[in-house]
User: What shape does this take?
Amino acid sequence: MLVVVTGVSGTGKTTLGLGLSQALGIPFLDADDFHPPANIEKMSSGEPLTDADRQPWLASLAAKLLEMEGKGGAVLACSALKNAYREQLQVSESLRWIHLVGDRDLIWQRMLARQNHYMKARLLDSQLAIWEQPRVGHLVAISGTPAQVLEVSLHYLKMQDMKMNMGVIGMGVMGKSLALNLAENGVSVSLYNRFVAGKEEGIAQKVLLENPEFTQMAAFEDLAAFVASLATPRRILMMIPAGAAIDAQLDALIPILEKDDLVIDGGNSFYLDSDRRVNRLKEVGMHFLPMGVSGGEEGARKGPSIMPGGNAEGYAMVADFLGRISAKDKDGKPCVTYVGPGGSGHFIKMVHNSIEYGEMQVLAELVHFLRFGFGCTAAQVSAILSDWGKGELKSFLLEITADLLLFKEGGELLLDKILDQAGQKGTGAWSLTTALEYGIPYSPLAEAVNARGVSGEKAMRLSFSKTFQHEFQKVEGSLEAWLPKIKEAYALARIINHEVGFRLMKMVSDTKGWGLNFNEIARIWTNGCIIRSGLMERISANYADQVAFFEIPGVKEQVISGRKALAELVGLGVTNGFALPVMSAGINYLLGRITADSSASVIQAQRDYFGAHTYQRKDDPSGKFYHTQWTNS
Ligand code: 6PG
Assistant: This one.
């Protein structure tokens, strides 16, 4: 075994090197002993070495390492500050790197305490200035005692010979949190983050360094080394942005993976792309799992809702791990289930997000109306929402909205300082285009997407508000009288949002033959995810394919009782100058769906009038098409 311990002067390379040499039973070499006299003289006079000075020194070290490999190995302590120097010393694939790192002040203290060393303490800054983030090996913090530093290093070396249970690609917020969640739940995990000079350097190493309590982790910037570190068949979770990056990552992975390996896409990819990727990996004998993950950073770290679809064999390879890291429902069952074939896991995550958009927008509409129409303070609105959240209206989004209404910055409400332009990453809009493609009315959730679009046109809104002298009007009635109705209206608007989403899921599932299980989907959404709520628990307990969503016990009663309240609230809001797009689309959608005799007869008559498009008649059940000559001309 060859081990190189690197670091700037004063980090304790010799101490660690000697400790490793003793523990591993191989000789210790100090790179300082290999400097030509001219270099030692230069350093003693406080003059930094140039790259040219280092060349002969590095060459002799490389030769020595090769020689020692043949003799059973060695531990070398060497500053090796730049990657170019490290590459020169990488004489063998089995050579392992331990890079000692620490605060400048701590190193400085240690250097001052040292005696009989030719290195001047003032050279430290020049060394730190040229030190480069390593691309391979393991960073070890020197803040611990020498015994702790030795223990961490030995552990790392041991892990190098161990194959990891799982690999995670992408150390963004979600990837890092899921990796730590896996490690905490006893799944050894290799972390990979690409190397982009000056932008993404040592990212995976940093995760290791910041989480020393998780010893079952290894970090990589080299994809091949990352893949080689995994037990076969390999299980790799990609947590990188949706779109072209996924295909590019698969292009890089497929040639270095083997038959039966599994790749999981845990991002918010578009489900049709995922359908295609399942087939792509199938063709090369590998498994692909498009997997929705909901819960944000905290969920990913402590227990998300997980929606894997795609290859069922692939799911079986990670079912245990996913069960361990997911949230648990009220009965303690993991909030993860095999959703169905193809891109169905990403499809239901997309619909989850569109319901999320609708739920967020309804709350935004209510908060705004209560504050500026009814004149409530933010704290009063927060209290109203908190009160609702104690009963059957409880939901994660309600809870965080009540919370954010109390958040102050410098004594002032932060909410009022946040620019009113909502962002979006695509899943809401994809749901809308999918609904259009499948002919499913989606107006309430579509309005949530549109409202974000309208919010983006801030300059135009400002200008038009002046042109049209728009101002919010204060509501004349009392809040006490309105509050029970507002609560009923809110409950119904939420039911409508969910009905719209579940209806789209059912239609697509039936058309594609996915056989989605909606009780189970609702169950895994009862905890961990952003739309977890009391309503979701009721849906999970009572939804059955043969029952229309609005007729679910408990839901039906609220549809009946809340209808008038929602209509009245929307009327009151728009009359007083408040845009309530999701709530108004919701009541229109509901009325449209429960109206037996609709206005569509007029549309059919118009179509036939101007274009001879024909129509069917109520008094002819045969379904025959008629055309009328509407004018004499
Ligand atoms: C979740 C969230 C998460 C994220 C979405 C929506 O379930 O954890 O839905 O996936 O919030 O990407 O983001 P946008 O609002 O930016 O579209």
Remarks:
- Residues 4 and 421 are 52 Å apart (CA to CA).
- The mean pLDDT is 94.
- The longest helix spans residues 479-512.
